[in-house]
Amino acid sequence: MKTLKDVISLKFKTSESEGVIFHGEGQQGDYITLELKKAKLVLNLNLGSNQLGSIYGHTSVMTGSLLDDHHWHSIIIERHGRNINLTLDRHMQHFRTNGEFDYLDLDYEITFGGMPFSGKPSSNSRKNFKGCMESINYNGNNITDLAKRKKLEPSNVGNLSFSCVEPHTVPVFFNATSYLEVPGRPRQDLFSVSFLFRTWNPSGLLIFSSFADDLGNVEIGINEGKVSVHINVTKVKKNRIDISS
């Protein structure tokens, strides 16, 4: 497949921060890889490099954040030669690839949801995508529909189901005046808490708990976009511990 223009679009949702969304590579060193890294979207593209090293075609662009929130996100990649438009959730980023070549020269297959081991450096230590995809369209071909109707030949489908399993979690929404109070555990010398949260507010109280017998308290909150932990302990010399991240 030697193309001057490409249009690739799909929607995905996942709770994983790492995973290959799609990948294709060619015998002459061309490749295109879209993947999640640290919950951000990374597009790696190479339209060709020469052996002398004077033409270096590798191009990498990163966009988005917090994409492992198990919400649907849409991606559109539009390429015309070296000009690329990368659109994530309606936010478009325009860039030009490095090098001097205009054609993407791939082998006879591209893969969605993972990367087959080819022995090339590009195929090592990358995780497969874990989550849901829909509306996969590659240069006018509805990949999702073709895969479901088993019209992709030859194709290798592993552990693929045409349904999206929802996680068994129940979120709680707090407004500016709501709170949740739960009973403590008396006569225990261990305090342990874990939770996931998301907010657009730069400051706010997340958790507060007083220790029994007037021994102090612990406070976890957001202060100017950073999570802060304050532990106040009475009856000791160093009576306050502050942690910020």
Automatic annotation (TrEMBL):
Domain of life: Eukaryota
InterPro entries with a match to the protein in the record: ConA-like_dom_sf (IPR013320), Laminin_G (IPR001791), Neurexin-related_CASP (IPR050372)
Transmembrane segments annotated in the record for this chain: none
CDD domains registered for this protein in UniProt: LamG
Gene3D superfamilies linked: 2.60.120.200
Chain ranges of the Laminin G domain: 1-164
Protein name: CNTP2 protein
Gene: Cntnap2
